[in-house]
Amino acid sequence: MNAPAPERSKAGWMRLRGLMRKEASQILRDPSSILIAFVMPVALLLLFGYGVTLDAKHVPLAVVIENPTNEASSFAGSLSNSSYFSPVMMRSRAQAQAMMVAGEVRGMVVLRADFARRLNSSREAPIQVIVNGTDANSARIISGYVENAWQKWLALTALSRGLDIGPPVIIEQRVWFNAEVRSRNFLVPGLIAIIMTLIGTLLTSMVIAREWERGTMEALLVTPVRVNEILLGKLIPYFVLGMGGMALSTAMAVWLFAVPFRGSLAVLFLISSLFMLASLGVGLLISTVARNQFVAGQVAIIIAFLPAFMLSGFIFDIASMPAVVQVITHAIPARYFVSSLQTLFLTGVVWPIVLMDMFALGLMAVFFLGLTRAKTRKGLE
Fold first, then answer.
1. What is the pTM of this model?
2. Domain containing 88 — which CATH number?
């Protein structure tokens, strides 16, 4: 005779609570789980926050002054006063070329002997800029910085001397959302998504695989516990652990790296929860299929971490990728999380973006968790 529904519900809750306590105890006894959830985010944020930047600061630049006139010295001085350059003054073009070939400078600016005459001529270029194009992105940045310094110097010269050498149109630049133009403000929110991907998939990918390796899964399967209770018992503790890592990463981003946060903490919590559920679903699915911890860990890195790092928009612009790759990125949960994090941190709650990302992450969470449930059977086969 079957037990009444309230008693079955109470028994199910007691079993689930026991599984959660067992998993929480396992987490506390396993140093690797704590390291991945709390130490790894700190290490990665410190590494990327301080060691990785897309900004060009104090770029070594050779400045060749063939004839040291007042005008040439004035422009060279403006480069010296810029935080973007570390100019090396010299008189020989050949020496500057040798330094650039040797990698001692990233570019060279040549002020020819007739710089003053060319300055007042509309038909001849007063300066020559040569940059090392090995790194095309850095070359474009350096070239743009030199051009900007040249335009500012022209405007100041025209203002102080009354010379008609300014451009016919004056461009006044205004940068929205990241007025300081700091790459750290762009990188750190994206890095949080990468860290959450590692926490969600790497930890849970080895959970059930560890049970199979240790032989405890067989003992668990002969108990009255149900499949849903097994999955929830493993899902909930790691969800709490992952959200703790999320809180730590957000606190470091705002208070240590001074990344502005203009959005809503409630919205951040909601979309982080959806992403964590999707990541946990991927990790549990891997763990269910691969019953070996080493294999599960490797698969998690290949199908979750690497795509999140390369194809989420964390560093590389998705719009610049080939069309086929852009289509593939829609299947990567980190793409939507990176988009929302950068929006919440730098812009605010832009509902068309946030709601679309929430919808996509919600679908992925349902899909991966549902597939994990379908793949999990209470049997040894």
1. 0.81
2. 3.40.1710.10
